[in-house]
Specification:
201 residues; mainly alpha; two-stranded parallel ribbon; 10 helices; 2% strand; globular; disordered C terminus
Amino acid sequence: MCFDTSSSNTGRLAGACVLLEQTLGKELLSLACRHHIMEFIIGAVFQVCMGSSFSPEVPLFKRFQEHWTSVDTNEYEPGIVNSDVASLVEDIRQSIIHYANTYLEQKLPKDDYKEFLELVIVFLGSAPARGVSFMSPGAMHHARWMSKVIYSLKIWMSEFKLTPAEERGLRYVCVFVVHVYLKAWFSSPRRYVHLVMTYIY
């Protein structure tokens, strides 16, 4: 059975997957949507690098959003300028820029995907075809996983005061996004079947 990873499907007591197995009287092979699994991965990486938060919103992102009106979007510093970042991404820099530009030529299902690709290109010291621009910060709650990627890249490159721990954590998140996550996300299959309660009955 294929499914997204929402609690209505994966809940251990009343999730659709459990109820479907109970109805059929046997266990089924579970094939969770890879895109949804990828959401858990970036969430876990962000938590390891930046620490846990019990707030419905990420405090750092909230500060940045409140500071946005004071940010000069023409003044930014690509990640590649930082020597620590450069040493970690230089070997894959050109291939990732090419990969991101190739995807930007395609029709993307969401504006978030386009912003993600463009921010990675800027982070690596290049510029997207339509030029460098920074969109206003959007929703930031924990369930919106893409915000962790977009906010991290945007904060790192802007003139925004960070504590040493925040700077170090964001650096690790950004390098992970560029080195591992971008290709993993865009190459993972997007097709899955939603299990719903009406399907069981």
